[in-house]
């Protein structure tokens, strides 16, 4: 098919969508004031620009408000209790209210949306057959545009809370409820859980033989593309350069920005020996950051451990999403390279490499088959080699 060839050669999904013929989409009626599907997508994208600009702020403010509510509730319970030590705790809590922690996420706005679309296209270009149709790309791009806008109501449960904001905007642009529902269902399952089950794509009832105005829509495939594309879109383009340089990132948020900052390359490559492909992740970590303990929730974590944890999570997502993508793309493993740069001699860097893939009998645990495999072991290794770590 001519369109199959063009989607592989195109620079962006949006560019490809705009060049598709009207008969590739459900029928629409210009004489009734209806716009083409590519035009509807453009209108939705433009309408969401101010919402994307507020995503990080919304999550940040909600984290503050939630934390304050919890402190106030605890204060209220303490004041009613008979605990003989309650005055000390009350004093601590009241003092804490003057030091609000702010969870300042790495970028979830327009730049992130563009990066997700970019990574989804990279995945599509590795398809071996049956590329997404124009109708499927329309639904997929709309879902990519809205998948994180729930953050304006706070990070927790954002994959569900976007629905109210989406409906407020979309009804002016995409009037039929069937299309609205298709877009929302695919966007909603990009993370989180449904009634405690993380298998959101299945639990949401998504299908691969859905018909949308006589056009076939593979909902499970589109949802998996969005979900894994979102997982891949977490590189150095997401951290706040200015705030980092000025040391203005709150302590509770720094680990998210440090992680994005050190992830310099995310690519999908073909295996040289077979017809499969793999994800390549390249990290560059300054030795001065190796010993720093960053705050994450109630715990402290080393950056190296955050990298190990996040790569294991990505492998978990790869295995999950491949349930739905495997007929089309043979993505079999994740290869990780972590290069730790010394502060003095840049020719003496330490390189840690490992591969994450399924082997042996299936297990609930994802094991990193490399040594060292904890941040403390990395510190010990570098000290044994004579590195001066702060």
What would you say this structure looks like, in words?
- The protein is built from 15 helices and eight strands.
- The protein is globular and about 70 Å long.
- With 390 residues, it is α+β, with helices and mostly antiparallel strands.
- It has a four-stranded mixed sheet.
- The longest helix has 26 residues, at 55-80.
- Strand 1 and strand 2 (215-217) form a beta hairpin.
- It has helices at residues 2-9, 13-18, 37-53, 55-80, 86-96, 110-124, 134-146, 158-170, 177-188, 200-203, 219-232, 241-245, 254-262, 303-325, 375-384; strands spanning 210-212, 215-217, 263-270, 277-286, 293-296, 299-302, 331-341, 350-357.
Summarize it.
This protein is α+β, with helices and mostly antiparallel strands and 390 residues long. It has helices at 2-9, 13-18, 37-53, 55-80, 86-96, 110-124, 134-146, 158-170, 177-188, 200-203, 219-232, 241-245, 254-262, 303-325, 375-384, and strands at 210-212, 215-217, 263-270, 277-286, 293-296, 299-302, 331-341, 350-357. Helix 3 packs parallel to helix 7 (134-146), helix 6 crosses helix 11 and helix 7 (134-146) packs across helix 11.
């Amino acid at each position: 098919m001519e369109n199959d060839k063009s989607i592989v050669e195109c620079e962006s999904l949006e560019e490809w969508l705009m060049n598709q013929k009207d008969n590739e989409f459900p029928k629409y009626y210009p004489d009734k004031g209806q716009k083409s599907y590519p035009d509807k997508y453009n209108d939705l994208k433009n309408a969401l620009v101010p919402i994307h600009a507020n995503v990080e702020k919304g999550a940040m403010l909600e984290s503050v408000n939630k934390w304050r509510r919890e402190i106030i509730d605890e204060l209220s319970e303490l004041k009613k209790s008979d605990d003989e030590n309650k005055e000390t705790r009350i004093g601590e809590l009241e003092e804490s209210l003057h030091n609000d922690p702010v969870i300042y996420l790495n970028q979830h706005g327009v730049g992130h949306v563009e990066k997700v679309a970019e990574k989804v296209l990279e995945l599509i270009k590795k398809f071996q057959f049956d590329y997404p149709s124009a109708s499927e790309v329309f639904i997929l791009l709309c879902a990519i545009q809205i998948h994180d806008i729930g953050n304006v109501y706070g990070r927790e449960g954002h994959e569900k809370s976007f629905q109210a904001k989406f409906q407020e905007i979309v009804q002016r642009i995409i009037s039929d409820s069937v299309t609205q529902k298709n877009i929302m269902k695919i966007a909603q399952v990009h993370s989180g859980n449904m009634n405690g089950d993380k298998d959101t794509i299945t639990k949401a009832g998504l299908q691969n033989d859905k018909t949308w105005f006589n056009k076939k829509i593979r909902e499970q495939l589109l949802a998996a593309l969005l979900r894994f594309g979102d997982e891949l879109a977490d590189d150095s383009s997401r951290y706040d350069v200015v705030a980092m340089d000025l040391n203005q990132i709150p302590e509770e948020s720094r680990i998210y920005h440090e992680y994005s900052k050190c992830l310099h390359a995310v690519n999908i490559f073909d295996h040289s020996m077979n017809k499969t492909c793999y994800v390549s992740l390249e990290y560059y970590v300054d030795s001065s950051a190796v010993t720093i303990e960053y705050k994450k929730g109630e715990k402290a974590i080393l950056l190296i451990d955050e990298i190990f944890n996040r790569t294991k999570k990505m492998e978990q997502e790869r295995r999950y999403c491949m349930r739905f993508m495997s007929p089309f793309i043979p993505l079999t493993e994740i290869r990780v390279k972590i290069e730790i740069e010394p502060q003095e001699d840049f020719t003496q860097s330490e390189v840690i490499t490992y591969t994450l893939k399924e082997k042996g009998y299936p297990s609930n645990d994802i094991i990193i088959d490399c040594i060292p495999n904890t941040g403390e072991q990395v510190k010990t290794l570098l000290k044994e080699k004579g590195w001066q770590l702060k």
